[in-house]
Write the C-alpha cells for this entry.
Amino acid sequence: MSNVLFTSQATAQGGREGHVKSSDGIIDVKLVNPASGSKEAGSNPEQLFAAGYSACYDGALNLMASKQKKEIESEVTAEVSLLKDEADNGFKIGVVLNVNIKGVTQEEAEQLAKAAHDFCPYSKATRGNIDVELKPKAV
C-alpha cells in the first residue's frame, strides 16, 4: 500500500441480517435487509456506503471549490441501489450523487461536480466497477 494516513475498522456478523460495529464503537448498528420486507429498524450495507460516499464526495467538492477560489455551500445526497446483475444472476450496486451547490452557476456546478468525481477516493474506488451518475444542481 501507499503511504497510509489512517485505517478504519468495522466488523460484521450475520451478513445483511446481522450486526456491524466499528472498532471505536461509534458505529454499532443492527443490519436489516429492506428487500426481505422486515419492519425491524436497522441499517443496511447500501445505507452505510451512501453515508460514506456522500461525506467523502462533499469533502472533495469543497476542496475543488477552494482550489478554484469559489465560496460555496453544498449538500450531497448519495442514493445507493442494490440491483440485479444479469451478467451472473447475482447483485451489484449503482449510485446517483445528487449534488446541490449554492454560490455558482449551473455550468460551474457541473464543472465542480466532475472535478470532485475525478478526485474523490470513493469515486476512484468505484470507477469502472459500478455505475455512478452525477446530478449537479446550482441552487
Summary: Helices lie at 45-67, 106-119, 121-126. Residues 45-67 form the longest helix (23 residues).
